[in-house]
Amino acid sequence: MRTGRPKKPLEISDEDREKLNMMARRPKSAQAMAMRARIVLSCGQGMNNSEVARKLHVTGATIGKWRERFRESGLDGLLDEQRIGAPRKITDQQIEEVVTKTLESMPTNSTHWSTRLMAEEMGLTQNAVVRIWRAFGLQPHRVENFKFSKDPQFVEKVRDIVGLYLNPPDRAIVLCVDEKSQVQALNRTEPILPLAPGIPARQSHDYERHGVTSLFAAMDVASGVTISTCYRRHRHQEFLRFLNEIEDNLPARVDVHLVMDNYGTHKVAKVRSWLTRHPRYHVHFTPTSGSWLNLVERLFAEVTERCVRRGSHTAVPVLEKAMLDYLDQRNKNPKPFVWTADADLILGKVERLCKRISRSGH
Question: 218 with 346, same domain?
């Protein structure tokens, strides 16, 4: 009768058996480790490989592998061996050359490197360049814009407005006020094709113009609630009407701090007279070319994204209704935009940028 190769005895200590039982039964054990523990425990009961294979529904080769691994190395033998991948084909020197060339040079007759141009220049594959750039966070195809404010009171205004955001005064309301002017009511010349699996929504490139409107908004920094309206024109008369609307919607006997930009309609004599007649209003002007300090600009970006950019509006009233309905719905569950950067952080970035730019005058 054929009995196969004699197996070397498998001895399991009480401590190892306890650990194996825990590995086999613990719900959070990896299934592969739990199976290896059951294999060793079954072999430790005197069962041969074939019997254990039938019991656990695995192959005899699997039983033999883990039985022998445990016999030689104990519990450590049940762990996965470290896998050694293919040897590197790109040297550290090549990586350094790619990074250096990306940072310190420009390709001939081009404004920036692409993965294909760099791969051709360095004798590497395009995928290799992609991996190197990704590892070092290099994105030559991207560029960001910046603009310096020439306001002589830039530092003071930054500290003033950021101070309002981070440490608002007690028993006062901070409102960010601005106008999104010249919002166009555009109607696509063809119906928008709806979203489909694997296909984005599609709209025609050309459109019909149906007029413009201006969205006036005042956002409470603390709550995110917005007072908003639309006017067809963008003059100081409309701004005064909006100030009256703000006054009608705010509680009495509470100081109001208005954060506004330097647009001409905000500084005309009639507006200054209105503010003089309402002494509880305190105006804080953003620096010239510093509209990014006004949090309501973030709200305008949201309105543009949600209501305007992909919309198709057959008339100005349709556009106005879409924007105002969105803001009314937002007011039912308002979420404020939280300002996190303090003035020192902002001014420090500006200072470092000035030092890097030639002819900055700073």
Answer: yes
Instruction: Extract the runs of DSSP E, i.e. beta strands, from 162-302.
Output: 172-188, 207-220, 226-231, 255-260, 281-285
Domain that holds residue 48: 14-78
Please indicate, yes or no, whether residues 168 and 33 belong to a single structural domain of this protein: no
Together in a domain, 163 and 277: yes
| Domain annotation covers residue 83 | no
pLDDT tens-digit series, residues 110-144: 899 999 999 999 999 999 999 999 999 999 999 88
Which amino acid would we find at residue 56? L
Give the angle subtended at the CA of 152 by the CAs of 149 and 157, to the nearest 5°.
75
Q: By percentage, how much of the chain surpasses pLDDT 70? A: 94
Q: 307-346 pLDDT, tens per residue? A: 888 888 889 999 999 999 999 999 999 999 999 988 889 8
Q: How far, CA to CA in Å, does 314 sit from each of 32, 187, 194, 300, 321? A: 63, 5, 18, 21, 12
- Residue positions counted in the chain: 362
Domain shared by 229 and 327, yes or no: yes
Q: How far apart are CA 185 and CA 318, in angstroms?
A: 8
Q: Whose structure tokens read 């016999």?
A: 71
99 lies in the same domain as 186: no
How far is residue 52's CA from residue 58's CA, in Å, rounded to a whole number? Answer: 8
Q: Is residue 197 part of a domain?
A: no
pTM for this one? Answer: 0.67
Same domain membership, residue 259 and residue 216: yes
Segments in the chain forming alpha helices (H) = 14-25, 31-44, 49-56, 60-73, 92-104, 115-122, 126-136, 154-166, 236-249, 269-277, 296-303, 316-332, 343-356
